[in-house]
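Quick one: structure tokens for this chain, please?
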Amino acid sequence: MLTEVVGMTMGLHTLEKTQSVDDLLPSVVDETLRQVFKEAGTKVIYSYIENKRHLKREEIAEKPEVFSAGLESLLVSAARVIEKLILKKLYRKLGLKFEKKKGYEFSDYIKELRAKYDVEERRI
């Protein structure tokens, strides 16, 4: 019984770890924005970023600096708080602990994760 529970837990954790950052990031952004701004606010943010920064939700992982600039132009200083919430949730879903790095911005963390997981996926 215990091995079944452990196996099921490990299976769920492994499932999220095998998802690419590109697949996982949009859903983490969705969850975080909805948690903070509810559905209506989330739609406004996505609409603003798509119209003003020409960035679709699915492109956030490829162009994190554009997403970050869009958030900052809309939310000003609150953008950093939202980015940190997104990063913490993303790292947690990947089974990692988020640690702030001096001089790093949102896009640096995303690029680092993409590079790390792209290398690991190629090895498999």
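The CA atoms of residues 64 and 111 lie 8 Å apart.
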